[in-house]
Amino acid sequence: MLEKALGHKLSQLKEKIIEQRFFVKKWEAKELLYLEPTKYRPFSHKIQKVNQMSKESVIAQTEITLPQNMVDKKVYIKIPVESAVEALLILNNKPVAGIDRFHNTILLGSFEETKPKIKIEGKMTSYEWEGLKKGIYLFTVNDEIEKYYFDLNVAYEIFQNSKDTSLKMSLWKILENSASAFNLQAPDFERGIRNGQRILSEGLQRLSQIYKPMGKISLIAHSHIDVAWHWELKETIRKSARTFSTAINLMKEYPSFYFPSSQIQLYAYTKKYYPQVYFAIKERVKKGAWELIGGSWVEGDCNIPSGESIVRQHLYGQRFFEKEFGKRTEISWMPDTFGFSGNLPQILAGCGMKYFFTWKMYWQSRDLFPYNLFFWEGIDGSRILAHTPRLISAYSGCATPKELFAAWENFSEKNICDEMVSTYGYSDGGGGVTREMLEYAKRYKHFPGFPECKIERADKFFRRIDKKIRNNITLPVWKGEIYLETHQGTFISKAILKTLNRKTENLFLDAEKISSLLMAHNIKPELTEIDKGWRNILLNQFHDIMAGTSEKEVNDDAVKYYQDALAIGSRIIEKNMEKLGKVIDTSDISNPTILFNTLSWNRDDIVEIRLNKIDKKTCIVDENSEELDYQVIDKKENKILVFAKNIPALGYKILDVKEKNGRKEKGNNIKVSTRLMENDFYKITINDSGEVKIYDKVRKRDVFEEGRWGNVLEFFRENPDPEAAWNIDRDFAKHRDTVKNAKISIKETGPVRASICVEKRYHNSTIIQEIRTYKDIPRIDFKTRVDWQERNVMLKASFPVNVNSLRATFEIPYGNIERPTHTNTSWDQEKYEVPAQRWADLSEFGFGVSILNDSKYSYDIRNNLMRITLLRSPNYPELDADKGLHEFCYSLVTHNGDWRKGGIVRGGYQFNFPVIARGVKPHQGRLTPSFSLAKVDPENVIIEVVKKSEDSDSLIVRLYEYFGARGNVNLSLGFDVKELYETNLLENKKRKFNLTGRKNKVSFFIKPYEIKTFKLHPHLSPPPLTGGGLEGG
Questions:
Q1: Which residues of 195-204 are buried (b: 16+ CB within 10 A; e: fewer)?
Q2: Mean pLDDT of the chain
């Protein structure tokens, strides 16, 4: 028998599996427009045009009278989907399973009644439904024939894909003899099938004595669901219901089937909109069939969100799991995320994670990631067991012999460990596992010459490997970030989302700190909807939303979620500042203005203040009766700019606005013209293009390479790419353009700040920059407003600094990392665009330059050329992504020594967290006119978070070390506390501290880049009217 003949015979055998068919011919259907889960409205092609994202839906239903020969038998339904139709099958008002082109055969179960009610609720057009409904039928199967078919087919596919010649020869003889034993045209063909089954089973049993399994593969079911991408969130809700229903239904037919699922947002959606499905999930979690994995609210981006946002992903996620299911997960599941920050192991470990899983590292464009099973070590030394299997069909693995042979062959640690994972199930748009996959999978366990495969839970695999490690199996170690050599465009695409992300993250940290100060004084803060706001932020950090790689409708929804969060955060701050203003004693101050500093050090900084009125008599006085320089920046809005000193750490002080006869106008301390700006720190020369040369007066050196200019706006023409929003061509610099002429004017002069305005045109776009310098701050700001109308163009600002260093430093979530400035190896070359948080720095011994930003996340630094990436304009998935108005600011700072000595980390914070100023009326109050909630020393430790505890009225203080140094730390509080515990990142207690004296100070040891969290309960007696919280505050 030839292989082709065997294949043909298998096809004929498959057709015999179905015993009885019953076509469903009568349907009542209506075409509707899908608004949100369970909500539809009538749809008419004549009056409505529907876009691709909000496609119309069809709801069809029928009541069937079952043929008598199907009663009390297992009944399946066949819905022959061949297009992009997706639907939910509902039986007797209960969701059963999802329907799509891969899931079109569904077990309905056994029926005692003869009239089951079937409903199909799907994303399809009426045209698609008309074609689909003609082929829908119920059927029963011949279990004996089905079993033989899958036994024979699996053996045949293993024969086809094995590279062992001896095994193939032996296997072919068994296949040939087995298939020759039956004739489907014979009246007694079923006896021949039983004979063929016997020959196959006995032959494989003999082979298993000769050919042992080549390794072990744990088959982990999966269905990655993009929370949004080519579909809106409202469609994701339906996708979740379909995928989850399918898994639950398969568990009824296959008791050994386990289904793990991540992304708590999807559980929350299902709970709200599909309670029957959610209840079934909870039941299967109890039985162990449904596995909770991931632990994060969504599978978020790991480069752009702040470190605290990544913590909150897991705080909200793990708490949901614990509340709803009584357990947490130890497995971080991020199959599709676009690279992983070097501090992620520490954050994951602090959130209860022991294990990490992804596929994504085998999307590398050039260098093969070297490990599949390894320890991943973060910048602080934390380690987590990581598994990154190299699968040929990771997103939609079908557990076929071809895939599993390849998985084992690609497993790089097979000589160290004899176990690995292969995932199976349709992904991206959900769907998950099929009957065919499970039929294949259950036949692999002892198949000769094939990996020993078994269906199991992910946690069982990882715990088994953990145990082997304890028994002296040594795995390789990968240290630092796991940089993905593709998708670099995701650091900058859809800039509005990046801007709103930074704004909302910062806003909510500020809101929590102000609220915490009130709590420390026994004042109930306004915190309404703070959880809702955080969940909006976390949802938008899903990797395809945050990356800007989704459709327009998804991006528009994300902006709305951010705007809602901004409104919530702003309202919380306003109400709590109002509460604070009412209890501060300002009785001795004529026109008090509160300055609130949300950072953890005493701060000198510029502050924008809105006054009731401004005239020549107006003067600003601090707590020492010292008159401060100020500058009017908006006469209509009565806004001034003042430089305030010694604003208490995580606290406030009061300025007084007085009228003073004979007050002298302050002169302009900063020289400014259209070609020159000069203060005590810098001398800046401007050319006709609006580019700058900078002389550092303090260090007596030119900042830029001789003969070159800085802040050169560079436009790079990008080649059209089928993944335009994701990717930047490594050779982008070959297509460079600049603007030679600019309109330059003086914008403002004054005793606090001076600026010039540079206006440029590039094709259809306008770029307006204010170059700002300050009397008291050694920083040059480039406040930028762009009307961006380009397509497939990338905009960068370049600075050819006079610095020689092999490595540059970049801020990452809760830390920083060095990357090469050279291109020695292919690994170095592929880092042609890299992510960063608030700053990037290039330093040599004694001198360095940093570029700060308020909303950008993308840099490239090669040799001495520093560039910050400002905008892109990809045309896919959103055709006109990034077109429109953009406002942002970036800054240049020079310093002595490296970034540590230059105070760049603190500088990045101050650039991103402006001092909050609010005017109040004078009155008596129980709080002092100056107060500091908390301080920490030494300077290499920052308090990032002060917030209400999740489960009590205690306060949470989170801080981290950022120099990469170890040593003793002193945390000083502006109030006494009853108890103080160190906790993990999920706020679970680890150890108690014994407090002495005033019970407001604690000392502890910190390691390089370590994040520490404390839980404390304040003494809530009202404070006296004298004293200022902390000394020096």
A1: ebbebbeebb
A2: 95
Residues 6+ apart with CB under 8 A from 626: none
Name the DSSP class of 718.
Answer: P
pLDDT digits (tens, 9 = 90+) for 937-964: 999 999 999 999 999 999 999 999 999 9
Q: Give DSSP secondary structure letters for 906-974.
A: HHHHHHHSPPEEEE------SB-SSEESEEEESTTEEEEEEEE-SSSS-EEEEEEE-SS--EEEEEEES
Pairing, β 419-424 against β 383-387: unpaired
| pLDDT band at 553; cut points 50, 70, 90 | very high
Closest CA to 211 of 166, 161, 174, 173: 166
Nearest to 492 by CA among 879, 911, 868, 877: 868
659 pLDDT higher than 90: no
Give the contacts of 545 (CB within 8 A, at least 6 positions apart). Answer: 227, 228, 497, 539, 554, 555, 558
Residue 1's SS3 state is coil
Q: Which residues pair with 632 in a beta bridge?
A: 640
How would you class 55 by CB atoms within 10 Å of its CB: exposed for 0-12, middle for 13-18, buried for 19 or more? middle
Q: What are the structure tokens assigned to 320, written together?
A: 């949901």
Q: For residue 324, report the phi and psi dihedrals to the nearest 5 degrees.
A: -85, -35
Give the pLDDT of residue 665. Answer: 63
Cβ–Cβ < 8 Å for 259, 432: yes
Q: Enter the pTM of the model.
A: 0.96
1033 — pLDDT class (breaks 50, 70, 90): very low
Tokens in use for 769? 């920059």
- Other C-beta atoms lying within 10 Å of the C-beta of residue 181: 17
Q: Report the alpha-carbon distance of residue 211 to residue 702 in Å, rounded.
A: 73
Q: Tell me 337's DSSP state.
A: -
Q: What are the chain's domains?
A: 3-11+145-210 (no CATH), 18-141 (2.60.120.260), 216-480 (3.20.110.10), 490-583 (1.20.1270.50), 671-912 (2.70.98.30), 933-1033 (2.60.40.1180)
Two structure tokens written together for 417: 């460990």
Between CA 607 and CA 665 the distance in angstroms is: 19
pLDDT classification of 84: cutoffs 50, 70, 90: confident
Q: Torsions phi, psi of 647, nearest 5? A: -75, 125
The token duo for 501 is 């992300």
Averaged pLDDT, 39-61: 69
Three-class secondary structure of residue 419 per DSSP: strand
Q: Is residue 358 within 8 Å of 318, Cβ to Cβ?
A: no
At residue 145, the pLDDT reads: 97
Using the predicted structure, report yes or no on whether residue 1020 has a pLDDT greater than 80. no
Nearest to 859 by CA among 843, 835, 885, 842: 835
| Token pair listed for 383 | 């380690």
CA angle 62, 67, 73 (to 5 degrees): 100
Which of 230, 330, 316, 320 lies closest to 271, judged by CA?
A: 320
Q: 913 to each of 510, 515, 732, 945, how far by Cα in Å?
A: 8, 16, 34, 13
Distance between CA atoms of 773 and 546, rounded to whole angstroms? Answer: 33
- The b-or-e profile of 715-742 (16+ CB within 10 A means b, else e) is bbebeebeebbbbbbbebeeeeeebeeb
